[in-house]
Design goal:
Helices cover about 85% and strands about 0% of the residues. It has helices at about 1-10, 15-45, 50-90, 105-150, 155-175. The radius of gyration is 32 Å and the shape is rod-shaped.
Length: about 180
């Protein structure tokens, strides 16, 4: 049973990527088949000469160029946008999310969905960290106020520091529990 599961994972994983590649291959085959048919039809009507050869070569070159432009735009075009978004996220805009166009590649769309989930987690962690930082600063302000009093005993200060340490530990435990 476990062996069958591994086989399924090996051959049936990455369905979106396989579909994208199959889509590319299908369009390439259909384009070449159509142009081959057209080339045969043209070849029957005109004499096979260097002009005919040039037309066929230019036709196949156009197919390759057009398919390359279309599919690289669908596969690679979004990466430039993602790169720009990542730069903005690195500068601190953790609320940003990646967006894909409807004509972008299927596999890329599923990848971006997963990346957006990671970004949501990052934003949550950042928010928790900032909240923890505020609470610790508040506790430190309380200790500073105690220290600034002129008449403070060593026991009071020790008690304040122990209380601060306990409060920080509680805050850390609370922040890790929420994840």
């Amino acid at each position: 049973m476990e062996k069958k599961l591994k086989v399924r994972q090996k051959y049936f994983a990455l369905n979106e990527l396989r579909f994208s590649i199959a889509h590319l291959v299908l369009w390439a085959l259909l384009s070449v088949a159509f142009f081959t048919y057209m080339a045969i039809e043209i070849g029957e009507k005109i004499e096979r000469s260097p002009v005919y050869f040039i037309i066929v070569v230019i036709g196949y070159a156009l197919i390759v160029i057009i398919l390359t432009l279309v599919f690289t735009h669908r596969f690679l075009g979004p990466f430039e946008r993602l790169k720009t978004e990542l730069k903005l996220i690195r500068t601190g805009s953790h609320h940003r999310r990646f967006h894909v166009r409807t004509k972008d590649d299927f596999y890329l769309r599923s990848f971006i969905t997963e990346v957006n989930k990671v970004l949501e987690g990052l934003e949550e962690i950042t928010g928790s960290k900032e909240e923890l930082h505020k609470k610790i600063n508040s506790e430190l302000s309380n200790i500073k106020t105690i220290i600034e009093r002129k008449e403070i005993s060593k026991e009071e200060l020790t008690e304040a520091v122990i209380s601060f340490n306990k409060r920080v530990e509680d805050l850390l435990r609370e922040s890790t529990k929420n994840k």
